[in-house]
Design a protein that fits this description.
CATH topology: phage-related protein like fold
Strand order of the largest sheet: 7-19-14-8-11-10-9
Number of domains: 1
Distance between the termini: 68 Å
Helix content: 25-40%
CATH class: Alpha Beta
Structural class: alpha+beta
Number of helices: 7
Number of strands: 19
Length: 342
């Protein structure tokens, strides 16, 4: 077997699955914490109208009476077609000549050296794909996705609106960094936030992600206090527990582009802000890839090789279609710290 045939037949679904299992996972607080539920769908689109519905109580009916219709009684169907993350890296003819030297007679050692080179290329594509997926997840928890998208005309915006596109909000009773604020005040706000989420139909265990500024302000309130005044509050690695409410530090960031097309870095949770969400509602689903060689399957990542002539070489192409599923009423953003107007 020559080296070209070997490389073109190397990237099978089974090989890629093994690479996914052994790749080093990148850190994203939003993805790791909020989108722990991950699914796959064989469809190229997702249906959001049923997903974003909230659950409320309804009147009972008399015995023998007609059943009640739930879901708002609308006939509209919200279909969203997720856009793919499609990347490539070129293995040039010059690099192929270098690899042919390593290939030798095509024995096991030569195959191992060549596959190591291909694996490094694919791993880089995987890492970039994961970083983009994490950015989409981070934007989704704000109620909208507004992300860079490459089109024939250049960079345009990829937009998705979840339901109304407006998450819940809350105003704290006292700013948490104020001198007179106590642990009891913070606990009162946490209870009120959970109640508001439940009242909007998103019932379940509530989690909190907080910016570094909020995390430090809370830690400064708790650590100087004696145990008798802490109300059981504890500060551990990246987490603060206040009477069972867990506040997780979110110091992650993602890359985007501004209106001029310039690259910008954005924080997963903006400075001095916090977000609460109902666990088990957010979900990341992978849609079927738009690639015949990938059998149009719903897989987290697909890659293949294509021989190209100008420039001569082999192009390693990858595709993934992740889509974060959220209900805007299952997220509540608030600003617990004092903001100084500039």
């Amino acid at each position: 077997m020559d080296i070209l045939t070997f490389i073109q037949g190397y990237l099978t679904v089974q090989t890629i699955s093994k690479m996914i299992e052994r790749k080093q996972k990148r850190r994203s607080v939003v993805f790791d914490t909020i989108f722990s539920k991950r699914t796959q769908t064989g469809l190229p689109f997702v249906r959001m109208d049923e997903y974003i519905d909230t659950i409320r109580s309804v009147p009972v009916v008399t015995r023998g009476g007609a059943s009640l219709t739930i879901g708002g009684g609308t006939n509209s169907i919200a279909m969203i077609e997720p856009m793919p993350i499609r990347l490539n890296r070129l293995l040039t003819g010059a690099r192929m000549n270098d690899l042919r030297t390593l290939w030798g007679d095509g024995g096991s050692r030569g195959q191992a050296l060549v596959t190591a080179e291909i694996d490094r290329m694919v791993m880089k594509l995987m890492e970039t794909t994961d970083k983009t997926r994490d950015a989409l997840c981070t934007q989704a928890i704000t109620g909208k996705i507004d992300y860079q998208m490459q089109a024939d005309s250049g960079f345009v915006r990829y937009g998705v609106t979840y339901g109304t596109g407006t998450t819940l909000s809350y105003t704290v009773s006292k700013k948490w960094d104020a001198s007179g604020t106590t642990i009891a005040d913070i606990l009162t706000d946490a209870i009120a936030v959970r109640r508001k989420l439940n009242e909007e139909g998103a019932s379940g265990e509530v989690g909190f992600l907080v910016s570094p500024e909020v995390f430090v302000a809370m830690a400064n309130k708790i650590t100087p206090l004696p145990d008798s005044k802490r109300m059981g509050a504890t500060v551990t690695a990246n987490e603060i527990n206040v009477a069972g409410f867990i506040f997780t530090l979110c110091d992650g960031s993602y890359d985007d582009r501004d209106s001029s097309g310039a690259e910008v870095v954005k924080q997963e949770v903006a400075a001095k802000k916090a977000v609460a969400w109902v666990k088990d509602i957010p979900e990341l689903t992978y849609c079927a890839v738009d690639d015949l060689d990938g059998n149009l399957e719903a897989i987290p990542f697909f890659s293949k090789t294509v021989k190209v002539d100008d420039p001569s070489g082999i192009r390693v192409i990858s595709e993934s279609k992740p889509f974060p599923m959220v209900s805007e009423k299952a997220f509540l953003w608030f600003e617990p710290l004092t903001v100084v107007e500039e």
